[in-house]
Amino acid sequence: MTYEQISSILETVGLPYAYYQFPDDTPQTPPFLCFYFENSNDVYADDKNYKRITGLTIEFYSDSKDFFYEALIEDTLTANGLVYRKSEQFLDTEKMHETVYEMQVAISDDWSILYPDHFGKKIC
Fold first, then answer.
1. b/e sequence 23-56, b meaning 16+ C-beta within 10 Å
2. In this structure, are strands 48-51 and 43-45 parallel, antiparallel, or unpaired?
3. CB burial class (10 A; 0-12, 13-18, 19+) of residue 91?
4. In angstroms, how far is the first alpha carbon of the chain from the final one?
């Protein structure tokens, strides 16, 4: 998967989304999504990284538990072949409900997809 493919998948949900966080000058009102790549779990063979695998986290923020959008997000992930783990919590300090989807994705050999802001691509 690439950064653009993940963005395209999230676009179909119809909610505002950003990589990691929205810029400070664009406060968001729930519901909205944030996503980011983290921790690698590469496949190694013949003394090299054979396939790059990275964690993808998608966070869904809402004022309260939102069954409709959670089902839409889960259906979208499933339709795109993404297998996920789900957890949720209420963020007292933010007064928001957070649902977190964690998954592993195989990525291209172009590391610019993980760090688009370092390669001249707009990320938000």
1. eeeeeeebbbbbbebeeeeeeeeeeeeeebbbeb
2. antiparallel
3. exposed
4. 18
**Contact partners, residue 85, CB within 8 Å, separation at least 6:** 101, 102, 103
CA 9 to chain centre: 10
Q: Can you give the residue ranges of every domain in the chain?
A: 3-119
The answer to whether residues 16 and 28 touch, using CB atoms and an 8 Å cutoff, is yes
HEC string for 30-87: CCEEEEEEEEECCEEECCEEEECEEEEEEEEEECCCCHHHHHHHHHHHHHCCCCCEEE
- pTM, rounded to two decimals: 0.80
CATH value of 3-119 in 3.20.20.220, 3.20.20.70, 3.40.1170.60, 3.30.2000.10: 3.30.2000.10
Q: pLDDT digit string (tens) for 71-113?
A: 999 999 999 999 999 999 999 999 999 999 999 888 765 545 4
List, in order, residues 6 or more apart from 45 with CB less than 8 Å away.
none
